[in-house]
Amino acid sequence: MKKRCRNCKHWELTEDLTDCPVRRCLGECSATPHVDEASDWTADFSRMVEAKEHKKTTAFAADSSGYYAGLLTKPKHYCSMWEEK
Q1: Which residue among 4, 10, 32, 63 is least packed, with the fewest CB closer than 10 Å?
Q2: How far is CA 85 from CA 7, 39, 47, 53, 82, in A?
Q3: Would strands 48-50 and 71-73 be described as parallel, antiparallel, or unpaired?
Q4: Is residue 26's pLDDT more than 70?
Q5: Could you give the CA distance from residue 74 to residue 78 in angstroms, rounded to a whole number?
Q6: In Å, how far from its chain's centre is CA 1?
Q7: 3-state SS string over the chain?
Q8: From residue 37, how far is each of 3, 27, 53, 60, 70 by CA, in Å?
Q9: CA atoms lying within 13 Å on the CB side of residue 18
Q10: Is the pTM of this model over 0.90?
């Protein structure tokens, strides 16, 4: 089996984006959390560090607005975090 997004348990076709013809074939990867969600404050609240539960995560999403960000991929995209569905 090829390690493509369409075969990965982390990937799902994003049906709520069908208003845009380009996005109809795209899906979202749940293995890439927003960088803010993958961060924790230090004990003294002086800086943010990588959260323990994301030590093995290799990719993160970020955006300038802070509302939402995600990694959108085509079904044939290769991913190093791939896991069989």
Answers
A1: 63
A2: 6, 27, 37, 21, 9
A3: unpaired
A4: yes
A5: 9
A6: 22
A7: CCCEHHHECCEEECHHHCCCHHHHHCEEECCCCECCCCEEECCCCCCEEECHHHCCCCCCECCCCCCCCCEEECCCCECCCCCEC
A8: 26, 20, 11, 9, 12
A9: 4
A10: no
Tokens of 84: 């069989």
Q: Please give the structure tokens belonging to residue 31.
A: 């293995």
State both tokens at 30: 């749940």
Which residue reads 């044939």 in tokens? Answer: 76
Please report, as a single letter, which amino acid is at residue 42.
Answer: T
Provide the token pair at 60.
Answer: 């993160």
pLDDT per residue over 60-83, tens digit each? 877 767 677 677 777 877 888 788
Q: Which two tokens stand for residue 47?
A: 């800086």
